[in-house]
Amino acid sequence: MAELKQLPDGWTYFCYIIHDETEDASKKAYFVLNKLEEFGYDKNYLKDRDANAGSLEITVHFDGLEKSLFVIVILTPGFVTLVWNRYRSNTALFEILKDPRTCRLLPIAFGIKQDQWPRELNGIEGLLLMESDWEKESKVWDQLNDILRDKIECINENRESENSGDQSAPPEINVKENYDYKHTYVLLVAAVGAFPEETDIFNNDLELMKAMFENENIYVGIKSENIHTVQGKDCLATEMNEKIKKEIEDIAKNIKNKTNTLFIFYYSEHHDEFGNMWVGGPVHSLPEHSLPVETLKKDLCTVDATNMLFILDACYSGKMEMGAKGNKYPIVLWDLWDKTGAKGNSTKIAMQWCSSQPYQQSFYGDHLSYFTSAIVNAVNGTCFTGQTHIFEKFKSSLPTDTKVITLKKIHNCVRDSVQSRKPKQKPFLFPDHSDEKMKSFPPFANKIW
Q1: 145 and 257 within one domain
Q2: How far apart are CA 99 and CA 105, in angstroms?
Q3: What is the mean pLDDT of residues 34-63?
Q4: 2 in a structural domain
Q5: C-alpha to C-alpha distance for 311 and 371, rounded to whole angstroms
Q6: Res. 94 pLDDT band, cuts 50 70 90
């Protein structure tokens, strides 16, 4: 079992698990309970196990809601059609539902697509298991721990906001402001779209990011010769894989034997739920148009950078797993945090910044992707119409005396911006560690406003 998590003051349990009364739903609830304990969340409330004999159901329900940090709802077809109406009429649960800032609710759906969820749960992050052997969907279950960490951060942010005038609050951590970016290398990839207008959008994303990286005022002024690009509009679909491989080889040669290096990989394209990046055309087109993530990992093993950042603007990008998780997957590129790489290279930290969760699509507007445009907006100190409150929250989260913006602060703003436009798309960053640990990663941008 993982290291036991510390339960915040004021709570008796981490999770209260709600399910219908069928044997199948009870089996699923106990499986979730075991997963929680496996991740170190050892104090949880399950009515079948923890309620006192003879207790009234309403009493048990109120105890679970009031004493638990999170409420996990096991969504099965029977629960949605027969049980949900009874629960949603409960006053205490309604208070949780109507205020998403509490971050306390987590649906786990079995065999139910997100558009079939109860409407009250629209826009709430959850897990989606569609396979009959759901116990074996390890990649989805791994997200349970990530989501709970994200929700704890959300709760802590709300508390910090409420206690902003409290002088006893811990001081903001100082980040490393004088990071040397002279050995920073960037690879930007924009795929061939399903139609010309889509190819243009991917290319617009790339050009926007390239301009940001080159600008020494808003970013760090990366040397143009250190920025490599592969653009679908400029080559045949069948050439994309070889061009990406060649650019990686060039970067690997240039970065070799240098110290304090940063490698940034940006990708705007199609990606399917099976781990294939469709760099040369629409999803499920010709096999030669696809670049499997595992193939890309093999090539990237040769890039011996101190720090790596993967910015992935694609559907199901959370499944791309550019950093490996221990030995769970066939190809281990490196451990995600503070581990020596599988080939003994010098990589210390690898970060993955995804436009969407593993089960979510990513979206774009008329000219740009939502995720990419939100990144550049945040760096520039601008916002979309109607998002002033998001940007003001972002600005207020930064220390007044800092000259740089950390990756985590930028991510929080981008996440809120994208979700404001598209509630069913939630960007995420992993590994998502504490500010104390995250400060060791290079700052993402200069603060110019």
Answers
A1: no
A2: 10
A3: 79
A4: no
A5: 10
A6: low
User: What are the b/e assignments for 134-153, b being 16+ CB within 10 Å?
Assistant: beeeebbbbbbbbbbbbbbb
For 245-400, list the strands marked E by DSSP. Answer: 262-268, 270-271, 276-278, 291-292, 307-313, 349-354
Helices and strands in the chain: count of H runs, count of E runs: 14, 16
Dihedral sign of CA atoms 232, 238, 240, 246 in order: negative
Give the C-alpha separation, 429 to 17, whole Å. 26
Residue 153's domain spans which residues?
A: 13-161
Q: Between these two residues, 363 and 98, which has the higher pLDDT value?
A: 363
122-167 confidence digits (pLDDT tens): 667 788 887 788 888 888 888 888 788 777 776 666 655 555 544 4
Domain match, 17 and 129 both: yes
SS3 string, 151-191, reads: HHHHHHHHHHHHCCCCCCCCCCCCCCCCCCCCCEEEEEEEC
Confidence band of 77 (pLDDT split at 50, 70, 90): confident
Supply the DSSP string of 184-251, one letter for each residue. Answer: EEEEEEE---SSHHHHHHHHHHHHHHHHHHH-TTTS----GGGEEEEEGGGS-GGGHHHHHHHHHHHH
362 token code pair: 């990513």
Give the Cα separation of 237 and 241 in Å (integer). 9
Q: Are residues 252 and 150 in the same domain?
A: no
Cα–Cα dist 378/214, whole Å: 16
